[in-house]
Design goal:
The protein has 170 residues and is mainly alpha-helical. The protein has helices spanning 2-23, 28-32, 42-61, 78-97, 101-105, 123-147, 157-164, and strands spanning 107-111, 118-122. It has a two-stranded antiparallel sheet. β1 and β2 (118-122) form a beta hairpin. α1 packs parallel to α6. The chain is globular and about 45 Å long.
Amino acid sequence: MHALFQMFAGYNAWANHRVHAACALLDEADYKAERGAFFGSIHGALNHLIVTDRMWLARLRGEALPPHGLDAVIFDDLATLREARVHEDAALSDHVAALTDAQLAGAFRWTRMADGATVTQPLWAALAHVFNHQTHHRGQVHGLLSQAGIDPPSLDLPVFQKASGLGFIE
């Protein structure tokens, strides 16, 4: 199980890099344009992802949650957000790399922001949500890039696996 989550952490960083590189092709007006998405713009969606990753990393480390709402825009420009994204992806990858299979199978307790409910589940299940949440919103950004006239990059997991030598036997 540990190897699976290390792969997901690597994929997450790879996919975020590709999406941010595609976003850099947009001018600022198109990048920040209201597009009717859940967090409004591409910029809003990418900020949401970094906000939630910081919240999850704090939970995973047993630290206090950052004081941001889920729709907070904590970075005003793509360049600063990209730099923070690289740091956040590395921190999440490092955290996952340090986990053991026993820790992944162990109980993990966290509080849901939406309603304050306490959730107890295996750590692997919480991590599955973290990576699935990233994939969900990256998919939205992928679609928004198409709407903005940018050819979005392939984010298929097998493309990452082949590029990184994971999961392919030749």
